[in-house]
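[step 3/7] inverse_fold.run input=structure_tokens len=577
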């Protein structure tokens, strides 16, 4: 018979919210973005208590864009938390953005009680099916004991192979289930151990014979070119690229978000001679960039019909799709290390006097000179060039660490891509592979959180800004060092551009589909929350606002009045150099 005087201490129980928070922290996650509500508010609070910083947004779309950019900037999964149903649907914008840009992200959504599925429960949706087209891995934790395993699998899938978005579903009933604290710790340890075993089985390497072939192609080329993109930036391949380019003297061309891996001002930079570089090169080493619309699919007439592509990509499916002359599968940094090692065995260098290098250099200088002549003029009312030059000079004056530049819009982004100068890696975030509008404020917040030692400067069109303008309150609430510059030209492309014959029909007196309220006081919006707003329309006013806001490193909006007739309709990138 048991001793009636003996006492046993009952084991502490924890619920699914706490286990989910502990799993997130155990993986090493330090930041999460989202919008809370039923059934995930407790999870967010427990995550904060576990050491995860939660950045609360007004809209899941912007929070999702922040999570995707955070994944790119840090190399760790960006986390988005949403409620069920419509919250999940709103979050799909960020999840799909992560997938198309191949950035690691996990969207975590609460969902309805499993016992009520099919009965029309509150915000009921088959979220696994909804997320599948936009994720590389989707999983539902059907029981509390599955939570650690599901978390570790989703988080690891986001960063494994080609990075991308993953989805994790947490039903309401699972979040309310309980286990003992000791069992919870055991479940987390088992999930972590299983992950380490799986990682050990995934190791791959690029064949040395393929690397030799690649180097031989570069060595024997008459007009070689190295193209690199945000995949190389994500892989932290800047040192290997610098070594390759400066040892061989091969000109280089970054894609928009590859800018800064080597400074735009580097003597081998071919950005200002882009048409010549891609039109005449005979061998192109493409590192961490896809031959999609941004690179004209690698096809004539932009590229020579005889160009031979060497494609470096972490995905063998991408190489199979593009069918280059030679494909090297692997992490960009590791592949370039092998390429540099092979070159070291038998060095070669084009030299400054090589006809190809000279042709690129001369064309670039010619185009830069032509653009600088345009930039030198102070045009008031502002066109796009005058304020962009002033912003460029102010950003460069900051020095190192260089600010992170966030750019979105039509004319604003197009002009900014040519004028603004990137000097350091991963300091440019823009509309990306999809040309997505609305990413601006989310990207700003992600950059400020991921790179707290850097100022963040957004150069936005008024249309792009409008998608997420309410998040300026988020900037103020967290006191993030973000300066948002809005190019205000009264609408999409510049307000009403219709011909007289187009203004007809019963609603002809309505504003044009491209028009916004003229003279919109965007700077007042941030002032409502305690931030600093500026309205500028002259060079001196803009210089003063930039100097003051950059020095303060506090949330600010600079509303730049632009001539509504200065812009043009924009879509695919236009390159006239």
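[step 3/7] decode complete -> sequence:
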């Amino acid at each position: 018979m048991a001793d009636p005087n003996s006492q046993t201490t009952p084991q502490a129980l924890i619920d699914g919210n706490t286990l989910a928070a502990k799993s997130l922290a155990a993986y090493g996650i330090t930041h999460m973005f989202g919008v809370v509500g039923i059934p995930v508010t407790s999870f967010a609070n427990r995550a904060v208590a576990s050491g995860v910083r939660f950045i609360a947004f007004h809209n899941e779309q912007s929070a999702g864009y922040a999570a995707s950019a955070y994944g790119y900037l840090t190399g760790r999964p960006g986390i988005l938390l949403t409620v069920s149903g419509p919250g999940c649907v709103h979050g799909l914008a960020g999840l799909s953005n992560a997938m198309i840009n191949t950035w690691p992200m996990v969207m975590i959504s609460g969902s309805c009680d499993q016992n009520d599925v099919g009965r029309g429960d509150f915000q009921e949706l088959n979220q696994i099916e909804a997320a599948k087209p936009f994720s590389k891995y989707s999983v539902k934790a059907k029981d509390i004991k599955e939570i650690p395993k599901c978390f570790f699998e989703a988080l690891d899938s986001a960063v494994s192979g080609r990075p991308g978005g993953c989805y994790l579903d947490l039903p309401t009933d699972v979040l309310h289930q309980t286990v003992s604290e000791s069992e919870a710790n055991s479940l987390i340890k088992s999930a972590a151990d299983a992950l380490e075993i799986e990682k050990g089985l995934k190791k791959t390497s690029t064949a040395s014979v393929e690397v030799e072939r690649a180097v031989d192609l570069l060595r024997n080329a008459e007009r070689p070119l190295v193209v690199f993109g945000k995949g190389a930036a994500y892989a932290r391949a800047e040192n290997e690229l610098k070594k390759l380019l400066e040892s061989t003297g091969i000109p280089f061309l970054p894609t928009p978000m590859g800018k800064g891996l080597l400074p735009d001002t580097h003597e081998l930079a071919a950005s200002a001679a882009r048409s010549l570089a891609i039109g005449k090169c005979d061998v192109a080493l493409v590192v961490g960039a896809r031959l999609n619309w941004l690179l004209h699919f690698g096809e004539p007439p932009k590229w020579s019909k005889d160009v031979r592509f060497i494609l470096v990509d972490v995905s063998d499916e991408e190489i199979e799709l593009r069918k280059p002359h030679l494909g090297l599968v692997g992490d960009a940094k590791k592949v370039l290390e092998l390429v540099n090692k092979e070159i070291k065995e038998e060095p070669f260098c084009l030299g400054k006097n090589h006809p190809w290098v000279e042709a690129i250099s001369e064309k670039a200088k010619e185009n830069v000179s032509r653009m600088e002549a345009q930039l030198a003029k102070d045009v008031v009312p502002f066109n796009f060039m005058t304020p962009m030059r002033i912003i460029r000079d102010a950003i460069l004056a900051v020095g190192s660490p260089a600010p992170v530049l966030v750019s979105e819009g039509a004319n604003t982004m197009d002009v900014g891509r040519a004028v603004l100068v990137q000097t350091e890696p991963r300091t440019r975030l823009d509309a990306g592979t999809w040309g997505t509008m609305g990413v601006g404020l989310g990207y700003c917040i992600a950059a400020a959180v991921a790179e707290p030692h850097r100022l963040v400067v957004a150069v936005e069109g008024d249309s792009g800004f409008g998608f997420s303008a309410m998040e300026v309150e988020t900037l103020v609430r967290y006191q993030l060092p973000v300066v948002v510059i809005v190019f205000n030209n009264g609408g999409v492309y510049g307000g009403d551009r219709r011909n007289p014959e187009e203004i007809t029909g019963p609603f002809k007196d309505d504003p044009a589909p491209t028009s916004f309220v003229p003279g919109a006081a965007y700077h007042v919006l941030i002032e409502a929350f305690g931030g600093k707003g500026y309205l500028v329309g002259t060079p001196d006013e803009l210089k003063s606002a930039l100097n003051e806001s950059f020095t303060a490193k506090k949330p600010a909006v600079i509303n730049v009045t632009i001539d509504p007739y200065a812009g043009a309709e924009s879509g695919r990138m236009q390159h006239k150099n």
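[step 4/7] annotate
Residues 34 and 56 are 5 Å apart (CA to CA).
Residues 571-577 have pLDDT under 50 and may be disordered.
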